[in-house]
Write a structure and sequence with these properties.
Blueprint lengths: L3 E5 L11 E5 L10 H6 L3 H7 L10 E5 L7 E6 L5 H18 L1 E7 L5 H14 L17 E9 L7 H22 L7 H15 L2 E5 L1 H6 L3 H7 L7 E8 L8 E11 L19 H16 L4 E11 L10 E4 L5 E4 L6 H12 L6 E6 L4 H6 L4 E5 L2 H13 L4 E3 L17 E2 L7 H10 L7 E5 L5 E2 L9 E2 L4 H12 L1
Parallel strand pairs: 1-6, 2-4, 2-5, 5-6, 9-10, 9-13, 12-16, 13-17, 14-15
Antiparallel strand pairs: 3-4, 7-8, 8-10, 11-12, 14-17, 18-19
The structure holds ligand BES and zinc ion (2 copies).
Length: 490
Amino acid sequence: MSIAFSVTRSNPARAATPLVIVALAADAPMPRALVALDKACGGGITLAFRRKDFTGAKDEALLLLSPGAGPERVLLVGSGHGDVKGLTRAATLGGRKATALGVGRAQFWAEDLEGDRLEGAIAGLSLGSWEFRELHSPVPAAKRKKALSKVALHVRDVRAARAPLAAGVAVAEGQRLARRLAMLPGNICTPEFLARTARDIAKRHKLGVKVMGRRDLQRLKMGSFLAVAQGTTQDPKLIVLEYKGGRRGGAPVVLVGKGLCFDTGGVSIKPAPGMELMKFDMSGAAGVLGAMEAIARLKPKINVVGLVGSTTNVVDGDAVKPGDVVRASNGKSIEIQNTDAEGRLVLADVLCYAQRYRPQAVVDAATLTGAVVIALGAVAMGVMGNDQALVDEVLAAGRRGGELGWQLPLFDEYKEQLKSDVADLRNIGGRGAGTITAGLFLQEFAEGMSWAHLDVAGTAYSETDLVVMPKGPTGTPVRTFVEFVRGRAR
Ligand code: BES
Ligand code: ZN
Ligand code: ZN
């Protein structure tokens, strides 16, 4: 459920609310604005600092119960350095704790809540409250906790808060959508489901939408995409979403997402343990759909096209086999030596499709290689591209959005590894530099476009609890996409 946010100029000490969340930075004196609130909870805030029960450090949280009038509880959350990043994280933790408490309503206080700080706080509160319960049986009424449904934030200027409030909600709704899609299993979140989601986004925000199926892919001669889809009776989908906020006919930014609703590996089958994670192999597509949701709400002055290539990589008597040779829609022949390197086969044809837009830039996102998990772990996504300025721009966008990236080189020398005896190229590059050879494979289909590639296999899904979010989808790369597009619209 989404939170209804509002802003207020009242004094938190007098708020009749079950909870006030207070974000405080480390090593800073208690703000004067909190003197009354401190008094209202029996001096608990100053006492907590004095006893060092709470210092304001990152990820610290302390719940104070207040006996008198005013708020029933005060939750202190540490914002570390107190910058936008720290504040956003503190708000996320606050949202998560408030949800666990089941208070239903809350208020939020932090120093100088305006502009980027307000946007970050709103996005954080919304994301912290995110849960995935829709496939569990309903909790009996007596045990049910109230979802966090209303939050008021304390600001100085109510009018100036309107834009950052809307932006924070926009970004959070995009990320919430992406997380939900990545959490849903392969039997529910199918290519058809992603297509329906795209149609729903288009309908709510008046975007252009087009969904193509197997017949259309045949007409478009997408032999590479079709090869992956030939093992499943589910109709593969090439999904197009068009947001037109810029000049009519102005070159768009094109966002591309890998949408493998499940990846068994195909005939080159994956080992059984942990295979269930491969429901997340549509995280790039979820990133595109989430970003389009956010962009449609933010309304930047730029044209943006979202493309999703979606199918399921499964085993079947008619499935593609190692050694098969197929032809992508740009005419290049590909020897499929490993059917588990399927994402690049789908993206090859989707990148060819992007060419028709003569885009100002193309950024794709894909859970493309296990190798990027080895290289960069769960901390940074792998970033590559054929245009250094674009790569730098994407890395900066990721930093602004709290999604770290690290560049890997697409040196020509690695191309040797993609040579085939029977076709223009093969779809695997041997043991070394697996993320780079996957990137180089994609580059063959991005010729003439300014293109960057995000390998999010390590960052889209967390296998541990991350303090501010449960195990599961992180929402990466929604923020990188959104910040990149906002940057281009400025
Ligand atoms: N979806 C996987 C990538 C992946 C692997 C993501 C492990 C997260 C964890 C992709 O389709 C794949 O299987 N890639 C192969 C490529 C190899 C056969 C060249 C891989 O990385 O093992
Ligand atoms: Zn695979
Ligand atoms: Zn895959």
